[in-house]
Specification:
Among the domains are: 79 residues, Sandwich (Immunoglobulin-like); 408 residues, Beta Barrel (Maltoporin, Chain A), CATH 2.40.170.20. By secondary structure, the protein is mainly beta. The chain is globular, with a radius of gyration of 27 Å. It starts with a helix and ends with a strand.
C-alpha cells in the first residue's frame, strides 16, 4: 500500500515538473490597507483558463503551470467586494490581493447574532466549506469533524454511515446545542441531534462554527459542552452544476447532484441538491438507506435578503444500538443482537428481516434580513419542521399484559404471551421564529435577539401489526399512546465594546423560559403525567486583550442552565432536577505567517449535572441521573504550522480531568459510600492531527490521526467496565483534473484505519457487563466529483 502511494506521488510530481512553466503565489488579505488579517477560504480564479484555487488557513494560494501571458484574476470572499485584476506573467510572481468589505448584506448575517467573532472571549473554531468538502465522502457530519479539538465521534454501524454521534469535552449530543441558520436542530424532548435524519447535509454547508463550553447565547437547549452553528450554502454568483459519486467498503455508495442558477438579474438565486447514501454497515445487518434534499431560493437586494430554504430526508436503518458483550467480541466483533429470534435452548434461530428504524423529517425556513442603516441590520426567521416515523421490533414471548390485552383462552389453556411485531411511532410538529437586531459602529457592537418555538402535536404511540396468537385484536392495535407539548422562549442582549486598540469588553445576558407537558400510557402500560416549567437567567462576561498585533489573550465566565429531557423523566427513579453550569475560559491565540495556535484552559463546574449512568433504555437511549456536584477541567492546545509551501501540519491535544465530586457507590460490604469518581465516557486525553502534503497544485496527500484515551462506561471507575484507549490513522488522497468542457473533476480516496486497529468508540454498562460498539478495521471510500 505504502509503495503504491509513494510511487504514484513521485510519478505525479515528476510529470508536473516537466509541464510546469511559471507560478503565481501570494495571499488574500483583509483590506484596504496592507497587513490586514488573512482570509481563509477565499477563491482565486483564472478566468481565461477556468482554473480556481482556495486560500489555506494562512490566506496563502499558489497557481502553477501557467504559460507566459496576461490573465484575468477574479478574487472572491463572502462578505467582501469581488476583485478583478489583470496580471502579466513572464516568470514566477508573488502578489497579494487586498479585499474590502462589501456594503451589500450577505447570507452570513443570519447567523451573526449567535456566533463568536475575533472580539468574543470564547473558545471556538471555524470550519470552512473547502475543509468540509475535501473530507466529505458520504459519511455523516460528526465523522467529518472528528479531527477538531476535544471531539470524539462514534458510529453504531461502525462505518460512519447511519446513526452517528459526537461528544465534545465529554458531553454527549443532548448537551451540545446545534443550530442550522440560527434555528435549533436539537429534538425538543430528547434534546439530542439525530444526524441520520439529515443525510449528506455536509454537501449543503457553507461554514460550521464550534464553540466549546457554554459559548455565546443561542437558540434552543442550553449548551453544556459545546455549540455547533451550521450555516447552509450562501449566494453563488455564477451558475454551477455538480455530480458526485462515492463507493467504498461494506457496499457503501453515495450519489449527490446539486446545482444553482447563480445571480439572475443581479437579484435572484436558486439552488438545489438531492442525495442518496446507502451502506451495509460494518456491523451485521446494520444497513442504511438514506435520501435527502436541499432547496433554496432567494432575493438579494442591496439592503434586503429574502430567502426560503427547505431541506430534509428519510432514513431507513436496520437497528444496531444494542452493543456487543466482551465474550462475543472475542469471537464475532460484528455480531448484532437486534432482530434475533431464539430457540428454546437459547440459541439463535433466525433474525427478523425488518427490525428497522424508518423516519422522515422535513425542515422549512424563511429568512428576512434588512440593512436599516450603515450601523443597523435586522433579521427575522420563521421555521417549521414535521417529523414522522417508527421503529419496528419483533418481540418474542411478549406478555399480553404489557400490550394492554387480556390473556387468550384456547380450550382449557390460558395463553399469557405471544410473539408479536410492533411499530413504535413518533409524530410531531415543531415551529417558531427567531429574531435579531445588530448594531456595529466604531468600537461598539450591540445585538438584541431571541426565539419563540413550540413543539406540538407530538404523539408517542405503538401499534401491534402482527401477533402469532391473538383474540380478535385488530391489525394496528394501538397498545400505548401519549402526547407531548413544549414551549421554549428566550431573549438575549450582547454588548461588545473596544477601548483603544487593545482592550475589548463583552457582556451577554439571556433569559430563557421553558414549559414541558407530556401524559399518556407508556409501552409497559404504566401511566405518566409530567408538567414542568423553568425560568433561567444565563449571564456571560469577558474580555479580550491584544498583547501584540499577533497575540490575543481572552477570558470569560458564563452561567448556563438546562432542563431535563423526556428520558430523564420517564426512565429515572426520581423526578430529575434542572442543571446549572459555571464555565471559566482563559485562552491565548497566536496568528502569524507560518504558525497559528491557541492555548486554552477551561473549568466547568456543574450543580445537579444529569450524568450518564451507563444504562440505556429499550430503544438504546442513554439514561441519566442527577449527581450533585461535578466538574470538568482541562487544557486544550491546537495549532497549524506551515512547514513549507507544500506541507502543512495542524494538530490539537486536550488533557482533562472529569469528576463527580461525591458520587454514591456501594462498597465491598454493600454499604453506600461517596467518593470522587471519573465521569462516564470522558477520556482524559484526546488528540488529533492532520499532516497535509501538496506535491502539486492539484494533488494532495493527507495523514489523519486520532487518539482517544480510556473511557469508563459507568461512574464507579470499574476497570472491568470501560473502553480501552485507541489510536487510529487514515490516509486521504485528492487529485483535481481540468479537462476541456468542465470546470473540474475532483478525485478522492479515503483509506480509514490503515493499521487495522480493533477498537470501540462507544459503549454502555448493564448489570456490571460492558457492551461495546465496535468500529470498522481498514476500509476505504473513493469519490469522483464533476463540476460543470
Amino acid at each position: 500500500m505504502y509503495r503504491l502511494l509513494i510511487t504514484a506521488a513521485v510519478m505525479l510530481w515528476s510529470s508536473g515538473a516537466y509541464a510546469q512553466q511559471f507560478s503565481i503565489y501570494g495571499k488574500v488579505l483583509h483590506g484596504p490597507e496592507p497587513g490586514g488579517p488573512a482570509l481563509q477560504g477565499a477563491t482565486i480564479e483564472v478566468r481565461e483558463l477556468g482554473r480556481l484555487v482556495v486560500t489555506d488557513e494562512f490566506g496563502n494560494f499558489q497557481l502553477t503551470q501557467l504559460a507566459e501571458g496576461e490573465y484575468t484574476m477574479v478574487v472572491r470572499f463572502l462578505g467582501y467586494q469581488e476583485k478583478v485584476q489583470r496580471v502579466t506573467i513572464s516568470g514566477n510572481r508573488e502578489i497579494d490581493f487586498l479585499l474590502e468589505e462589501s456594503s451589500q448584506i450577505t447570507d452570513e448575517v443570519v447567523v451573526w447574532a449567535t456566533r463568536a467573532n475575533d472580539k468574543t472571549p470564547m473558545t471556538y473554531l471555524q470550519v470552512g466549506k473547502q475543509a468540509i468538502k475535501q473530507q466529505n465522502f458520504g459519511q455523516d457530519l460528526p465523522v467529518l469533524l472528528n479531527w477538531t479539538p476535544s471531539m470524539v465521534t462514534t458510529s453504531d454501524a461502525g462505518a460512519g454511515i447511519g446513526y452517528t454521534g459526537l461528544r465534545i469535552r465529554g458531553s454527549d449530543a443532548s448537551r451540545i446545542n446545534v443550530t442550522i441558520n440560527g434555528i435549533a436542530l436539537n429534538d425538543s424532548e430528547s434534546q439530542g441531534v439525530f444526524w441520520v435524519n439529515t443525510p449528506d447535509l455536509a454537501s449543503s454547508i457553507q461554514t460550521i462554527q464550534i464553540q466549546r463550553g457554554v459559548g455565546t447565547s443561542t437558540n434552543g437547549p442550553g449548551a453544556f459542552g459545546a455549540t455547533v452553528s451550521v450555516n447552509t450554502d450562501g449566494l453563488s454568483q455564477d451558475p454551477y452544476a455538480e455530480a458526485t459519486v462515492s463507493v467504498g467498503s461494506f457496499g457503501s455508495q453515495r450519489f449527490t447532484f446539486k446545482g444553482g442558477t447563480g445571480l439572475i438579474d443581479n437579484r435572484w438565486s436558486f439552488d438545489g441538491r438531492i442525495s442518496n447514501v446507502t451502506s451495509d454497515g460494518y456491523v451485521d445487518r446494520a444497513n442504511s438507506d438514506l435520501n435527502s434534499f436541499f432547496l433554496s431560493g432567494g432575493y438579494y437586494g442591496a439592503r434586503t435578503i429574502v430567502k426560503a430554504i427547505a431541506f430534509g430526508g428519510r432514513e431507513k436503518t436496520y437497528q444496531a444500538w444494542y452493543g456487543v458483550d466482551p465474550a462475543t467480541m472475542e469471537t464475532d466483533r460484528t455480531y448484532n443482537y437486534a432482530g434475533a429470534i431464539y430457540n428454546e435452548d437459547g440459541s439463535v434461530s433466525r433474525f427478523y428481516d425488518n427490525e428497522v428504524d424508518d423516519y422522515k423529517q422535513n425542515h422549512y425556513q424563511l429568512h428576512l434580513s434588512q440593512r436599516l442603516s450603515e450601523a443597523w441590520n435586522a433579521n427575522l426567521s420563521l421555521h417549521y419542521t414535521d417529523g414522522r416515523g417508527y421503529f419496528e421490533q419483533y418481540k418474542q414471548g411478549e406478555s399480553f399484559a404489557n400490550l394492554g390485552l387480556p390473556d387468550v383462552n384456547i380450550g382449557d389453556s390460558i395463553i399469557q404471551a405471544s410473539d408479536v411485531i410492533v411499530r413504535r411511532w413518533l409524530d410531531n410538529d415543531y415551529y417558531g421564529m427567531t429574531f435579531s437586531t445588530n448594531y456595529t459602529k466604531n468600537n461598539t457592537e450591540l445585538t438584541f435577539g431571541g426565539a419563540m418555538s413550540r413543539y406540538d402535536n407530538a404523539r408517542h404511540f405503538g401499534e401491534m401489526i402482527w401477533a402469532e396468537i391473538s383474540d380478535n385484536v385488530p391489525i394496528r392495535f394501538v397498545y400505548y399512546d401519549g402526547e407531548s407539548e413544549k414551549t421554549d422562549m428566550n431573549i438575549y442582549a450582547k454588548w461588545s465594546q473596544s477601548f483603544g486598540e487593545k482592550f475589548n469588553s463583552y457582556i451577554d445576558i439571556q433569559f430563557r423560559h421553558v414549559r414541558y407537558e407530556t401524559a399518556g400510557i407508556d409501552n409497559d402500560q404504566s401511566a405518566y403525567n409530567v408538567s414542568d416549567e423553568f425560568s433561567f437567567l444565563n449571564p456571560k462576561v469577558g474580555f479580550t486583550y491584544a498583547l501584540t498585533p499577533n497575540d490575543l489573550f481572552y477570558s470569560s465566565y458564563a452561567i448556563a442552565n438546562r432542563e431535563p429531557s423526556r428520558t430523564d423523566y420517564s426512565e429515572g427513579t426520581e423526578k430529575p432536577r434542572s442543571e446549572k453550569l459555571g464555565n471559566l475560559e482563559i485562552g491565548w491565540k497566536r496568528t502569524g505567517q507560518k504558525f497559528t495556535g491557541e492555548l486554552n484552559y477551561y473549568l466547568m463546574n456543574y450543580t445537579d449535572q444529569l450524568v450518564l449512568t451507563g444504562a440505556v433504555s429499550d430503544t438504546g437511549y442513554p439514561i441519566r441521573a442527577n449527581v450533585g456536584k461535578s466538574y470538568r477541567t482541562g487544557i486544550e492546545l491546537s495549532g497549524l504550522v506551515r512547514l513549507s509551501n507544500r506541507l502543512n501540519w495542524s494538530a490539537n491535544v486536550t488533557a482533562s480531568v472529569n469528576k463527580n465530586k461525591d458520587y454514591v457507590v456501594l462498597d465491598e460490604n454493600n454499604m453506600a459510600t461517596s467518593r470522587s469518581t471519573t465521569i462516564i465516557l470522558s477520556p482524559s486525553w484526546i488528540a488529533g492531527s492532520q499532516l497535509e502534503w501538496k506535491p502539486l497544485e492539484n494533488f494532495q496527500i493527507a495523514l489523519l490521526s486520532k487518539y482517544v484515551g480510556q473511557q469508563y462506561l459507568d461512574n464507579t471507575e470499574n476497570d472491568l467496565v470501560k473502553l480501552s484507549d485507541y489510536f487510529i490513522n487514515d490516509i486521504r488522497l485528492s487529485f483535481t483534473m481540468r479537462p476541456k468542457g468542465v470546470k473540474g473533476i475532483d478525485l478522492g480516496l479515503l483509506v480509514n484505519n490503515i493499521f487495522n486497529v480493533e477498537y470501540s468508540s462507544n459503549g454502555y454498562g448493564y448489570g456490571g457487563t460492558p457492551y461495546y460498539f465496535p468500529q470498522a478495521g481498514t476500509n476505504f471510500m473513493a469519490m469522483m466529483s464533476v463540476k460543470l
